[in-house]
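Cont'd.
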Amino acid sequence: MESLASNGHSHHQLKAGLTCSVLFLCLFSIQVSGAERAIEIIDEMEALYQGASSSATMTMIVETPQFERTMEMEASSIGTEKSFIRILSPRKDRGIATLKLDMEMWNFLPKINRVIKVPPSMMMGSWMGSDFTNDDLVKQTTLTDEYSLTLEETDEQYAIILVPKEETVTVWGKIDYIVNKEYMVPVAQNFYDDNGEIIRKLEFSELRDFSGRMIPSRLEMIPMNKEGNKTIIIYDELKFDPPEVDESIFTLRNLRSRF
Amino acid sequence: MLLLKLAFRNIFRQRRRSLLTAISMAGGYILCTFSFSLSEGSYNNAISFFTLDHTGHVQIHKEDYLQRPKIHKTIDDPEQLSEILDSREDIAAHTLRVFAPGIAYSDTDNSPAQIIGVDLERERTTSTLEQKVSSGSYIGSDLDSDGYYSAMIGAGLANSLNIGLGDELILISQGADGSVANDIYIVNGIIGNRDSPDRNTVFLPLVAAQEFLSMYGRVHEVSILLNDEGDSRSEASLLQEELQDLSVAPWQVVESTFYQSMQTDKQGNNFSMGVIVFLVFVGVLNTVLMSVLERTREFGVLKAIGSRPTKIALMITLETGLLASLSVLMGLLISLPLIGWFTAVGFELAQPMDVGGIVMSHMTGEMSFYVFAIPLALIVLFALLISIPTGIRAARISPTEAMRST
């Protein structure tokens, strides 16, 4: 668990964190300030599904008042910087793939044999018609860099409130991040706009044991401004540090390869 | 009969004055017919242009697709609807369409495009799409030997994508089920030129577009051509009664911006015509009054020898009416060939005019009963109106006073 947490840190933060901790250790008892702890928790949560590297198969269900669509896909990732998703079914969409490298994102459409870069203006656009945005996949906004965090604690939960730092341009006006203390897993995220109005909710449920780690296997994204719309992601399989995931997956060449 | 004869004589007694009055009335009449003919002709031209181009006379959609188009607002059973429409005698033809915005790609470029899927066979008889093919041919709805559908693209799109006949066109859009719609088509026809309204449109066979957008068998729009444009509103409301769960709209609603600016323009036109006729008749009133005043002694004598006041008033009215009719007849003789030429030839506008999104580039007149009859009725009516107070004035003349005056 410790290793997971430190993975999310950048070197800079790690250094700053260390200095701080040492200072605190020296001067006071072993206690980390609320904000520091909050950063730690968020980083741990954000790295939860990735690990050092991971591979997963999942099912995505997009529900709208007009239709319901189910897609199966496989995903691989190294850290939070690199990820690769390929749609396995339905047949019509099979082979459509998305590659994310750092802040950039490409989609591959096998039917027209073409790689299309997702322009920055489309980052808030829907990913494959779901309620997840491209930005959710790319995580262009690193939460701990761009938001100030406040930690609130109950017996069972951490509630971390993220408010954009001054002078940063962020997508959200506020995010509530609720974490289950016992398993150290996310429970819910509420996203607000600048007027404090709730825009969407992401709920985590159905804890499952993946490689010895209890992780919520079901994610539900509910946009509050579109009645009847909902996207569910179910993790069918999640492996950490699998041998088959290496750097060669996260290349445009691999993205382009017919499947 | 005697009165009529008298009225006639009175008109011709002062030939020059009558002629001048007649000319001003005839001029007013010609101006009116010309203006009516122009606005009716130009607008009817524009109306038949866009109804045939794409709008049709009546359109059917699901819910408020017309105001807020959403890909899922579809007519789910177009085949049954087609059967109903085919069986109606007032309907000349109809066609089925689907719409979606998308991005078109060639190997090197990309451009936003409006994708329209049309029932190619039905479209042929409903709109002028086939005539708009400027190169290549009107496509068919079959797959080619490599398994690709054909497409017709606007000339502007062909230009910005740098592709021509036989080239591959890649389209990307969002399907009705939220999926990524993407496919390759072969360009087999170019529509219009780089200035036409369809310049960024991609026309696909209906089945191809339905497959592309994952909306199998469903359509967004049914466009109907009637035998008579004038029936648009009544036919629309008849169809609406029959098709409760769909929205039926005549072209006046579909092209409401155009229709409203047209109505406003016509009203403004009618108003200025009214002002012109009014000014003409201020002059005519003056003439009629003059002729009554200078004949005060005559009327006095007439009354003295026993003419009834009503007869005198009637005579004045007859005089004016007769003069107006003769003027209008003169005007008609002049305006007939003028408007005839205007209708047949017309003239081109130096600067095309945009009326509520519809571009009018040519001015032609219209030759119809309406164009001639309305100004005619207007002028005769006005003439009779002004003859009433003057007639009454003449009838009230007292014989003694009249004969005493010089």
